[in-house]
Amino acid sequence: MVEPPYEAVPLREAMWWHPVHTHDAAHIWLRETAARVGRRMAGEPGELGEPGEPGE
Questions:
Q1: 18: nearest Cα among 35, 8, 31
Q2: Average pLDDT, whole number, for the chain?
Q3: What whole-number distance in Å separates Cα of residue 9 and Cα of residue 13?
Q4: Rounded distance between C-alpha atoms, residue 17 and residue 19, angstroms
């Protein structure tokens, strides 16, 4: 990732799901994966690291 050549507006994403899916294995995997990617992407531009590094 690189920093954009303009002033970017902060962006916040949220996940919503019907309560019936709270314990569904596929939904759990999706939510955990999205959260892990979000944490990884929250670092400084250009500092994503490689898969398998600590924090994965």
A1: 31
A2: 79
A3: 13
A4: 6
